[in-house]
## 1
Amino acid sequence: MPKNRQDLDNSLKKQMIKDSARNIFLADGYEKTSITRISKQAGVTANTIYWYFSGKDELFAAVLEELISVFVSALSQRSETYSLEENLLWMLESFQFAKPLIITVHERSAISDAVATVHNNFHNSVESLLGKVLNESGFEAARIKPVIRIASFVVEGLLMHEVSIKEKQEIVKQLLAILSPLRDK
Amino acid sequence: MPKNRQDLDNSLKKQMIKDSARNIFLADGYEKTSITRISKQAGVTANTIYWYFSGKDELFAAVLEELISVFVSALSQRSETYSLEENLLWMLESFQFAKPLIITVHERSAISDAVATVHNNFHNSVESLLGKVLNESGFEAARIKPVIRIASFVVEGLLMHEVSIKEKQEIVKQLLAILSPLRDK
DNA sequence: CCAATCTCTTGATCGGCGCTCAAGAAGCAG
DNA sequence: CTGCTTCTTGAGCGCCGATCAAGAGATTGG
């Protein structure tokens, strides 16, 4: 079994491609970003990308995985020190820049298994994190799962639609009331 | 000002194109549906479609407008006789067949004004309908708007994600609790 | 009646897309 | 040196949405 020329060079170039892809995906969205454009910014030809990634969706999934990993670990740390409200607002804020990609994730998940897997993992991570918080707050156990789902859908909805700041604040307020264990009384 | 050759022929052919487009869009989704394929099923050439519609997004918006119009008037009638729960379940059920298009609507809304307009009108129609129902049920007025938005996001979320039947039922149950005026006590 | 005008349809074509293929360069192993 | 693997590339495929110029057909004003 022959060795790699340079293992470093391999993963390095792969990372460069991912970096270029991430920049252009975030700036212009999935559809308007062509493999050729990504390859030019990465300093390679389009075909090289197809050697590292089996297709555009797989490259997209790899980019998502990185973004999500950073986000989830940040949220995981925050959840220990900040309140639910603060974290909710932080999520909405820090996801704003990836707004077009959030819609794309759902679109491509229907087509690409790679994207669907990343998408599912993301939901599971965030929702299990929220589940722990709710559990510790004394939330009625049986209602935790569906209520988490509702929260998750509301957050996605807020990110996917144009909503005025005032309306957003009202929605978050209502959502927090739903997530409050006081409701049981 | 010269007359049309046949006004009837004009709107008829336009309708034929919309019908073909609707069928294929619903069967295969937006992306996989090409103008050429629609044109073949409608018995014209691709260019003819571009005479009736300024682009693929505008054709898509026209198709959506028809689907939505049928849906909204049906829901409007139902809201007078059926309960909120029944209508909610009916919405989820009757939208199932258009699931891939729901995701597409959001994706194209970011790109096409025509699709965005149709999308906004749809939200306004459904949400004002729900607003009337909540108002009549004695729901606290100040909370109606944000809660409607939440309901709307949850319905969209349920349609956009793979959710088991059991989980869906739980979520609907919690959503109905949120929409119940009894919560105020 | 005829030329002008408007409505509608079409074939040809464009640039770009995601992706594939075959060829070959560059390194390592026996 | 030979063979094998890793990586890179130019050429090209089929398809896409969209445009353009040409023209057919009906209707109109003169």
## 2
Amino acid sequence: MVEDDIFRALADPTRRAIFEKLAAGSMNASALRQGMAISQPAMSQHLAVLRGAGLVREARQGRFVNYDVDPAGLALIAQWLAKYRAYWPARVDALEAVLKEMDQ
Amino acid sequence: MVEDDIFRALADPTRRAIFEKLAAGSMNASALRQGMAISQPAMSQHLAVLRGAGLVREARQGRFVNYDVDPAGLALIAQWLAKYRAYWPARVDALEAVLKEMDQ
DNA sequence: GAAACAGATAAGCAGACGCTTATGTGAAGC
DNA sequence: GCTTCACATAAGCGTCTGCTTATCTGTTTC
């Protein structure tokens, strides 16, 4: 299951921290490691998990590998969350209604 | 961390299935077990995890315990997700703008 | 109050997770 | 082409998960 990978990836605080850093701007693995008390292999493994979950994308640039947030993963979470919109605060529900009007 | 609990709770497919069932309507543990090939202790343990994450609430009713979706947990996910709205599809972003107008 | 029932908790165990150290791979620079 | 650098992968290890069976707690019913 794809959702398994996404939620499992985000269950680790270190991985969420990495993701948060990437959300502020794309970076390579070394830059990500700055100020994070984490070994190089650990970072590589975390990035592999995030990538496998569709939360992060990679792009080789010479001998660096640049990572950035993959909207696909976030979209899946939003989609999952939308299934339970009945339980969201009324304010968010009202927003949904407006969205539908906008689409028409 | 609260988010640890939430994402960890949802990382398990069985727990997501339980949550999905509860989203369709509140139920006691026995009813939840119907058609789920899961032992009574396992169900109890899963519900404890979901409850600990703020995704589910319980209410004693005689010798039954009724469970239902706790909006608090979902709200936290929505809040977490909102931090990365920059990466959502443009359509959702437009929606956010409308919401702000509505609030004023 | 004893039996029956809904559910929680305890203990134990196989498998998964996240880390470590060591080594491999691919590109850059001389 | 050899070294250096950025990163990935392999192997091993302690810890955590999710399951099981067995037992306990609390409530209803007679």
